[in-house]
Amino acid sequence: MEKFNRFFIFLLCICMILSTVFTCASAFNGRNSGPSRSSSSGFSHGSNMGPQDRGSFNQSRRQSYSMQPQHQETNEQSFGQSFQMGPMNQNNMTEPPAKPEGDNPGSDKPGSNNDKTEYTAANTVTENSVGESYSSSDNGENAVLVSGSNVTISNATVNKTGSSSGDSADFYGTNAAVLAADGSNLTIEGTTVTTDGGHANGVFSYGNGTVVNVSDTTITTSGNNSGGLMTTGGATLNAENVTVSTSGNSSAAIRSDRGGGTVSVNGGSYSASGVGSPAIYSTADITVSNATLNASSSEAVVIEGGNSVTLYGVDITGNNSRLNGQSTVNTNVLIYQSMSGDASEGNSTFNMSGGTMTAETGAMFHVTNVTTEINLDSVDFNYASDSNVFLSATADAWGKSGSNGGNVTLNLTNQTIVGAIVSDSSSSVSVNLGENSTWKLTGDSSITNFTGDLANVDLNGYTLIINGVAVTA
Q1: 363 within 8 A of 386, measured Cβ to Cβ
Q2: Which DSSP helix (H) or strand (E) runs through 8?
Q3: CA 186, CA 55: separation in Å to the nearest integer?
Q4: Band of pLDDT at residue 325, cut at 50, 70 and 90
Q5: Residue 427: pLDDT above 50?
Q6: What are the two backbone dihedrals, phi and then psi, of residue 77, each rounded to the nearest 5 degrees?
């Protein structure tokens, strides 16, 4: 009996121990059986992403409202909480993306007067000088810098060698032979300026309030991306009887870049021989009078964005025999918007009165991804033998497909034009044929609107379609 009692007590102890263990285990499980931290909290998006997901995490946050309906509510919550949670593994969370460039180009973009850059110069000129020689061979250095001063440089010789990289030289003027900035007023007379290096512009005017006046001066550049007369950041440049010669690629004789400005040229000779080097490249308002301009391996004129070129009594020639960059159309005048942020948005304008324009290759005008007005008055045109197109308004390599055509208003006064006018479904062309103006077709043509007397249109055996309706002879 004693053995039985001892055995009974032993079993009772075993049961009590098992009961205690079971109770503790149940309580432990109960404390960990609540809602799991799934994607609704936003946390699991950060902690469970594989390598292929981390690179697109910024995009997934920006697009959280475009997910499928059954996930929309939880992902809105995740978006709102993602920056309020405690410490996380930094390898699984990226910083919000930087604001992309390209919005509102001008005042707050590189090349604008609000930007600051440090200049180094072999010679900082603060007083008038006559007959001086200036030189620089260091990369990124100006041979002459005029900063916030009123200075006249006469009968000088300026030599610049050494190269620089893109934005600092193209937007701000580092590495230029002569740079005026910070509201300077610089006059250059009877001077010879020579550069031999990449991104080594000749005479550079930068920033709001800066004015450069150049006269009776010779400017020669031989490196790529080295314009003759350069204007950016809202500056002003005036040139009279200047001779400019550039031989590098992407080196327009008269050139502007981000921030634009105002350029006025009277008299002189301006030539560019490199590929992608027009006589004039405008992201500014540029006026040229009584001058000779030639681009032997490029368009004669390029206008980018909401800017203008006005020509009075000039003799200008282009030979766009080799396409450059994204271009797909050989043309003498290219008017476009690149969407790079280098040129202001808006409508562009090309004006030409008197003078002669010669196209050695391609169409006379090509307009794409921009709205423009072309005003022609008493211009003599010499047409390329390889093209029958006077004006092409079509989609090209820039802009969003389907909405990147050219929208053109062509105003003709005392003007004769010869050639086809072509447009595609994303483009429009309005022709205003004024008095004493005629148009002779050399190919089938399609325009949106026509104002004038159709008796002054010589179909020449071709078809003219106006707003979808063919014109009969």
Answers
A1: no
A2: helix 2-31
A3: 50
A4: confident
A5: yes
A6: -65, -40
Q: Are strands 469-470 and 464-466 parallel, antiparallel or unpaired?
A: antiparallel
The per-residue pLDDT for range 128-174, each reduced to its tens digit, is 999 999 999 999 999 999 999 999 999 999 999 999 987 899 999 99
Contact 151, 126 (CB under 8 A): yes
* DSSP conformational letter for 170: I
What residues are paired with 418 via a beta bridge?
A: 440
Domain range list for the chain: 299-473
| Mean pLDDT, residues 285-289 taken together | 98
pLDDT of residue 396: 82
Confidence of residue 102 (pLDDT cuts 50, 70, 90): very low
Q: Which two tokens stand for residue 32?
A: 């960990």
- Please state the three-class secondary structure of 64-125 as a single string: HHHCCHHHHHHHHHHHHHCCCCCCCCHHHCCCCCCCCCCCCCCCCCCCCCCCCCCCCECCEC
For residue 286, with 0-12 CB atoms within 10 Å meaning exposed, 13-18 middle and 19 or more buried, which class applies? Answer: buried
CA distances (Å), origin 98, targets 58, 101, 113: 10, 9, 22
Q: Identify whether the C-beta of residue 159 lies closer than 8 Å to the C-beta of residue 134.
A: yes
pLDDT of 375-386, one tens digit each? 999 999 999 999
Task: Give the whole-angstrom CA distance, residue 10 versus residue 244.
Answer: 112
CA distance 288 to 296: 19
For the chain, the 3-state helix, strand and coil shares in percent, each to the nearest 5, are 15, 40, 45
Percent of the chain clearing pLDDT 70 (strictly above): 73
Residues 6+ apart with CB under 8 A from 382: 356, 357, 358, 359
- Residue 127 banded pLDDT, cuts 50, 70, 90: very high
Q: Taking 80 as the threshold, does the pLDDT of residue 241 lie above it? A: yes
**Would you state the pLDDT for residue 338?**
76
Nearest Cα to Cα of residue 178 among 208, 217, 216: 217
3-state secondary structure (DSSP) of residue 434: coil
What is the model's pTM? 0.76
Phi, psi (degrees; rounded to nearest 5) at 19:
-65, -40
The tokens describing 429, both together, are 């062309």
Q: Please say whether the beta carbons of 53 and 89 come within 8 A.
A: no
Q: Which residues contact 200 (CB under 8 A, 6 or more apart)?
A: 160, 161, 162, 163, 164, 169, 175, 176, 177, 221, 223, 226
Helix H or strand E segment including 7: helix 2-31
DSSP letters, 16-83, are HHHHHHHHHHHHHHHHT-S----GGGSHHHHHS--HHHHTTHHHHHHTGGGS-HHHHHHHHHHHHHTT
Nearest alpha-carbon partner for 112 in 255, 284, 282: 284
**Residue 337 confidence (pLDDT):** 85
